[in-house]
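2024-03-11 09:14:02 INFO queue: dequeued item Delta(14)-sterol reductase TM7SF2, len=418
2024-03-11 09:14:02 INFO validating residues
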Amino acid sequence: MAYPQGSRAPLEFGGPLGAAALMVLLPATMFHLLLVARSGPARLLGPPPYLPGPDVLWSPRVLLLWLTWLGLQAALYLLPARKVAEGLELKDKSRLRYPINGFQALVLTALLVGLAVSAGLPLGALPEMLVPLAFAATLTAFIFSFLLYLKALGVPPSALAPGGTSGNPIYDFFLGRELNPRICSFDFKYFCELRPGLIGWVLINLALLMQEAELRGSPSLAMWLVNGFQLFYVGDALWHEEAVLTTMDITHDGFGFMLAFGDLAWVPFTYSLQAQFLLHHPQPLGLPMASAICLINALGYYIFRRANSQKNTFRKNPSDPRVAGLETIPTATGRQLLVSGWWGLVRHPNYLGDLIMALAWSLPCGVSHLLPYFYFLYFTALLVHREARDEQQCLQKYGLAWQEYCRRVPYRIVPYVY
Ligand SMILES: NC(=O)C1=CN([C@@H]2O[C@H](COP(=O)(O)OP(=O)(O)OC[C@H]3O[C@@H](n4cnc5c(N)ncnc54)[C@H](OP(=O)(O)O)[C@@H]3O)[C@@H](O)[C@H]2O)C=CC1
Ligand SMILES: CC(C)CCC[C@@H](C)[C@H]1CC=C2C3=C(CC[C@@]21C)[C@@]1(C)CC[C@H](O)C(C)(C)[C@@H]1CC3
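2024-03-11 09:14:37 INFO prediction written
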């Protein structure tokens, strides 16, 4: 980790150089995957089949389509919510309020898309637009992050994120300066984290499934599984929308290029890679194998959901009967750390469940290609890195209590392995 001059806060992601490199590498990787998924050999590590020129990347019509999508999701966000939740306490002791209507947005989007398709909208044409759509999303992410950076120059220090105030413009642009950028009650980070990208991801998957049905008469079992698992994951995230308020992205990270690009471009266009691969490279899948994969996904989901819910319940109300009997370690901050239950098994049981699900999403694509395993490999790297960042933050927050927790629960993600 690099250290900024005159400050003791460590710089993450390799400092300004690392941030600059990631701002080039991440979009390049996304376009590489989009191009390779539709190529014959579909080699993850080989060269892309061709380098797209401006005529392939740029389309004003596609940009308009993308902006309409963002506008639709913003309008759904502003609809009356079934509940308004409070976030964690901020530095100035205040708490922000967030509408809980993400699942409603998913259902309304499904209804609108259903209506549009029955009125003749050719959803199966979407897969042909993925490259210019990804370009529009990347462009939006760059412009949006720039506006967020400018906005953050005018906010009080208490509104800044702990990490994005190094003073280096490249690094701060990447990590994000302001913790919770808002205009009136519209929270940009919370909106982007759960709506346009996540819902866009399952819409792209659906379009790929429909195109496969057009091409081959019906969608393959592998395509059904990938669509079903990922729709379930997104539906679950939106159903438990409130839980995102205690994640690192909302409580610690500023809103800059990393999250804007991650939410708006990376998630919809790379997380749909398995379905993209299956459209161009159909894979046979028998019922016994499909059943085994469903069991793996169910196991992953069970661990992921139970672990996340246990921590959320505990953080909201440690005396809740569902968690009151668990063993804890007191910390100097007044908060406690769970040391039994899921959080006594490993230090990040939720990551373990998420990784098992990631594997289940790749398995329907067979073992002939490495490409559909990209998500699993990337996600392992992301979570290992994220776990290390979280450890660092927890050590700062909880000091000796965190060391005691690490002594009592020695494994980070996988019991007896890591
Ligand atoms: N699909 C995807 O692309 C991604 C999915 N995810 C998923 O998002 C979810 C949230 O992940 P993330 O925000 O990284 O982290 P976590 O939800 O794991 O939150 C970590 C925080 O939990 C608290 N905590 C840690 N240990 C304990 C304990 N023993 N007892 C009580 N509280 C504890 C600490 O915060 P405090 O004490 O301040 O409450 C810590 O900072 C995960 O399920 C992850 O798998 C994450 C990234 C990408
Ligand atoms: C582009 C870079 C490589 C890094 C970008 C990371 C982002 C794509 C992820 C950071 C944390 C995320 C979370 C989810 C999606 C991916 C990003 C934005 C999440 C919304 C997925 C659904 C889960 O149920 C969740 C727990 C709500 C996730 C929260 C974190």
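2024-03-11 09:14:37 INFO annotate: The chain has two domains: 13-40+54-86+97-282, 285-418.
2024-03-11 09:14:38 INFO item closed
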